[in-house]
Amino acid sequence: MGERTILLQTKSSATRFKKMTNAFISVKWTMILMLLPVMLSLYKCMQKTVLDLCELDSCPLCYGTNMCSEIQAGNVTLQYNTLKSAFYNIFSVKNVYFAKCGGKNCILKKLVHRHEFLEIGSHGDTEMELVKYLMSVSDIKKFKICNQHTAEEFLKQLKYDDIRHIDILLQLNVEPLLLQIFNKENDWPIPKFYGSCGRLAIMEYAGKDLNTIEHADWFKRAYVAHKILEAAINFTLNHPVFRLYLTDISPDNIVVDDQLRISFVDLEHGILNSKLQGKKNLHASDHYLDENYAFSESEICHSDISDHNIYSVCKLLLSQFALWPMMNKGLLHDPPEHVKKEYSNLFIDIEDCLHSKEGKDRFLIADHILDNLSLLLKNNVF
Ligand SMILES: *[C@@H]1O[C@H](CO)[C@@H](O)[C@H](O)[C@H]1NC(C)=O
Ligand SMILES: *[C@@H]1O[C@H](CO)[C@@H](O)[C@H](O)[C@H]1NC(C)=O
Ligand SMILES: *[C@@H]1O[C@H](CO)[C@@H](O)[C@H](O)[C@H]1NC(C)=O
């Protein structure tokens, strides 16, 4: 048995914080009216410009420079048009800012806090040296590259002007790198990555988090569930070179836009392995009744293919026993009576998907879930 990693603790404090902020945002209008003058005065005295946020003086290199001219030209502007965006932008909540990039909604992320920032070092200026660095970090990091071969392929696939940007991102937050490799142009369900300037990474605004559709029409939720499970399989199977196992799947890290398109955001936690031929040495995630959600990084890395993504989606999002921060009774809560009757298999399959053990193939169960969802969506126009 390899070591078990429970990432839930570290994750949940961030999630709890976000929940609290969301709760804060949804308090009654009276509260809002009381806060408004405070907000306005804060807005006046804290008028930040996007260029200030880049902190080019403290970090001229950082994540990149390709968005600097856009920012200097005034094409990226902070938005205060919704309560949430004003709140985030004024108080620097989670270091995320809502902005407009040349007319389109976008997100500016500072990626890490200042103290983390001071700890970074330099690990060389060749890909070889960075591979060596990646293989030498023994402590569990948010992002794990399984082996040297995978690390070499990963660096080979990245495009960059200055390898020092890659060095810094590997240490701080790999999201911009993953957004490049699993890019939107190739139809990966992720936000479009626009680029960086100093301490800012800039990406498309891709929608609201999954909890915002808690009370949406059941068939809309079924449609989204189908997309999410399909994406989980795609991250496992579809990239020509890699398998990406997501280790921070949560309702906050998947967003949905007005057309019910999904995107995985905050892609900084994951395990990257390279693809080998065939499906031999399948790793099946164990389900523990006594643990909330656990997985073994080393078992996943030592397999050729793992059902980790499918297990995580079933367990954390779809199951009626999905835990907080997922909505009560999971994404498919309260189905219409006729669906419950005609597609009873679907709900059995979803629970089977998480309890599955002794070689019951989760890939097969996932296919059944997807087929049944497609069929019922075809038969019920929404
Ligand atoms: C800023 O936006 C304008 C209008 O969309 C565009 O013509 C210009 O090229 C942009 N500037 C930069 C530096 O990208
Ligand atoms: C998964 O991959 C298939 C095949 O490339 C594609 O048609 C589908 O849209 C993808 N699904 C998602 C949610 O990305
Ligand atoms: C629905 O699920 C059942 C049970 O897993 C499976 O036998 C059946 O093939 C699925 N239906 C479709 C249309 O795929």
TrEMBL record:
Residues 169-345 form the FAM69 protein-kinase domain. InterPro entries: DIPK2A/B, FAM69_kinase_dom, Kinase-like_dom_sf. Its main location: secreted. It is found in: Secreted. The chain crosses the membrane at residues 21-43. It comes from the Eukaryota. GO terms for cellular component: extracellular region. It holds the Pfam family PIP49_C. Keywords: Membrane, Secreted, Signal, Transmembrane, Transmembrane helix. Belongs to the DIPK family. This is FAM69 protein-kinase domain-containing protein. It comes from Acanthoscelides obtectus. The lineage of its organism: Eukaryota, Metazoa, Ecdysozoa, Arthropoda, Hexapoda.
